[in-house]
Amino acid sequence: MLNDNDTLPFAREEYAERLKRTRMVMQERQLDALVITEPANMFYLTGYDAWSFYVPQAVIVDLTEDLPVWFGREQDGNCARATTFLPESQLFLYSDDHVQAADRHPMQLLGTWLKDRGYASRHIGVEMGAFYYTARAHAELVRALPDARFQDAELLVNWVRAVKSPAEIRYLKEAGEIAERMMSRAVSVAAPGVRECDLVAEIYHAQMKGTEAFGGVYSTSQPHIGAGRRANSPHLTWRDTPLGNDAPINMEFAGCRFRYHGPIGRTIYLGRPPQRYLDLAAAVIEGLESALATVRPGVTCEDVEAAWRATVSRWGFTKNSRAGYSIGIGYPPTWGERTMSLRPGDRTALQANMAFHLMPAIWVGDTGVTITQSFHVTESGYEPLTRLPRELIVKN
Fold first, then answer.
1. How many CB atoms lie within 10 A of CB 347?
2. Which fold has domain 166-395?
């Protein structure tokens, strides 16, 4: 259900609360302004949603101003008008001659704008590790404000996003419903002789079609398909190769609803799996269930991973990569929030309405098994975002 003007996925009051919590952290870090360039954070605070992140753009949050400012390309101004609650006074647009130009850069304009508003020697936070905040963007901003004190504020807003509102949880569940339909369609279509590209075409159709109640949109990445001899690799792109018999297909993808992602991973085995493969799948499933059984508020991220690791080690398997990560809003290239990881050393305590993708797949030797579960933390445990059985899918 949208808000009154039928353009924003959340009520204005929710955006106001998000800005309030962001400013509280800014005050703790003694930041006068925050220059946000991560698309997910821009969406979170303003609703801005367009495929324009390939050029410099930003949202500027000030401690004293009531509303943030959206800074971006002039031709994308209508995207801001269509997707945000910001009035015209809060849009700062640059001309197209600054796009991919060797002799000028949009951050020069933003630096001058900040300087004219009294930030020449103030504390300014920037997202140093954001994917679209380039080295040149930072250099140009520093050059325009040589006396300002820049502070790395990477993940400041990401952590504000960690605990979800009821409306966010609803969109995560809807994304999970779309993911279920994507996987169900993949299971129905997969068969020896079907080309990988044709399988993915059916997955994409289900992703965009969504459900009868709501549609889907593009996710942060393409479906990951590792079939046959490529089942030992986690992040491959499909080919036009026909699927073989007596071979696994590992798949991972996500449904997406208002940029909120519900990931899912499953393995389909075409034919009759050998016992060693059945044992590998059984280890992954038992480890997954053990990890989920630990989930509740107060348990740490590393506690969840430890339960997984202890279980699979009894089967004689190990995994050196993390067992999962926090999820929520996503733009290319990742649906992960880049905050919490389910791995040793992450002592972040789980809180109700945090969301995760428990992704304890194992790739070993010349094969692998991918069976995952996305979920949100409840007051007493967890609730899955996808409800397909956590099992190896065998198609003889």
1. 9
2. Creatine Amidinohydrolase (3.90.230)
Rounded Cα distance between 216 and 74, Å, is 28
Q: Is the pLDDT of residue 128 over 80?
A: yes
C-alpha to C-alpha distance for 337 and 14, rounded to whole angstroms:
19
Task: Calculate helix-pair angle for 106-116, 135-144, nearest 10 degrees.
Answer: 30
Record the tokens describing residue 354, joined without a space. 């945090």
Burial class (CB in 10 A: 0-12, 13-18, 19+), 137: buried
Q: Are 98 and 104 in contact (CB under 8 A)?
A: yes
User: In the prediction, which pLDDT does 7 show?
Assistant: 78
> What amino acid occupies position 219?
S
Say which residue the tokens 């590992």 belong to.
250
Which neighbouring-strand residues pair with 154? none
Cα separation, 40 vs 335, whole angstroms: 9
pLDDT digits (tens, 9 = 90+) for 268-289: 999 999 999 999 999 999 999 9
pLDDT band of residue 36 (cuts 50, 70, 90) is very high
From the list 231, 257, 260, the residue with the least C-alpha distance to 243 is 231
Residue ranges covered by each domain of the chain: 12-160, 166-395
328 contacts: CB under 8 Å, gap ≥ 6: 40, 161, 162, 164, 168, 172, 260, 261, 337, 355
pTM given for the model? 0.96
Q: What is the pLDDT of residues 257-271, one digit of tens each?
A: 999 999 999 999 999
Strand pairing class (33-36; 58-62)? antiparallel
- Output the pLDDT for position 4: 42
185: three-class secondary structure by DSSP: helix
Q: Which CATH number fits domain 12-160: 3.20.20.70, 3.30.70.260, 2.60.130.10, 3.40.350.10?
A: 3.40.350.10
The 3-state DSSP class for residue 277 equals helix
On the question of pLDDT at 305 being above 50, the answer is: yes
Instruction: Tell me which residue of 331, 371, 339 sits closest to 356, measured CA to CA.
Output: 339
Q: List the structure tokens of 78.
A: 């209508």
What value does the mean pLDDT take over residues 236-261?
97
Looking at every residue in the chain, the average pLDDT score rounds to: 96
